[in-house]
Each structure stands twice: as structure tokens, then as C-alpha cells.
Amino acid sequence: MYRERASRLPGAVTWANTPGGAAAGRVLPDGCMDLLWHDGRLLVAGPDTRAHLTEGDGSAWAGVRFFPGTAPGILSVPAHELRDLRVDLAELWPAAEVRRLRGRIEGAPDPLTALEDVARERAAETRPPDPLLRQVVTALDAGRPVAATADELGLGARQLHRRCLTAFGYGPKTLARILRMQRALGLARLGVPFADTAARAGFADQAHLARDIKELAGVPLGELLGERGGPPGARRELSDVP
Question: Hey, where are the domains in the chain?
């Protein structure tokens, strides 16, 4: 069973997943990075450019999903270095510190709350995220063209691309494409017909929607909506984030 809630860390969500069997799960690209707890290990999930299939071992996972662009500052690693990867936190932080945190989480009554506390404490020790990054996400999530977004923010195309690589793990066009897919999934999950979903989410037509979903998610939209058993990769509406 998958569940999530708003985190006490602004803009983030915490989530837990206990698969109901041996079926694999499918985590979709969403522009985010996660701090994970699984079988006594602390891991970091980098930004995905395609669906990540989880192993169907039936064991529990817990995570903190950071708002797009905020994790690199908290975790002290450029996002593009972790693109499409899951790595042990000990590869990024001192091993002794990670061992201490693992012991703390293992001994906590609620590992998810303890994991969230670790993320909040680390965020409090780091510089606040650049507010421009939130403006980038807001503009692209609203369907603004990349070139117009760069102009409105007073950035050149290369500047925007470079900053997006560090913050999100990929350039603004890829980020815009992923956010558009997530908008479409939100509509489709509400039962909006696929043709209307395509128009409202910013696709040229339904065929364009179908191609993007298949490429990013790995399966057709209809099949994706019917899947069960793993973290769905759903995200909170970015307009609802303070």
C-alpha cells in the first residue's frame, strides 16, 4: 500500500510503500529527487528521465520527496550527477555520519518521521534554495515556453540550461516535458477523456500525448492508469505548494 502526506519540510512530501505482493512497481519522472529508507539502508533517488521499475520483493520503503530543484542544495550534489540513478547516501556523505543516521532511524518508533527529521535538519543547515528555481518550475508547469521563461527571468538560454542541469538533473525542455506528462496524468486519473486531457495539458493532440507517455512511462496511458502495486510517481500539484 502506498501513502503520502505533506512534509513539515516546505514543499516536500513524505511517503511510505509496502507492496502487497511480489509485483514490481513503476516510479514515473516528476522532476524530483528523494531521500529513501529501505532495509536499513539510506539511499538517494536521482531525477528520472524515464520510468524506474522497482523490484517486487514485497519489502517496505519510506521516502522524502523534495520539491523540484531543492534536493541538490540539501544533499550537496548536483542533480545531473544522479540522473536516473539510485545511490547509497554513503557515496555522497561521510560514511560515519551515514552510519549514525542509520542507527538513529532504525531505533526510531517511526522510521518515516525520523527520516523526515534528518531531511529537515539538513535543510536547516544549508543555504535556502534559489527562488529563481521555483519560478522556473512554476512557469514550465504552467506550460510557458522555455524561451519565454528564460526571457522573463532575465537569463540566456545557456544560463538557464546550466542552472537546470544542476538543480533538476536535465535541461528545461526535458523538465517541461516531464511536468506536462504529470499534468496529463493528473487529468486522466480524474477521468478526463484522453483527447481533452491532451488539449488541457498542452500537447499538440492525443497522438502526441500517447507518444510522450509511452516514452517517459514505458507503457501506454491506458495501461499505466490501470497499474497497481508500487509508488505511482504521482506528485502534488505544484500550485498547491507554499
Answer: 2-125, 131-240
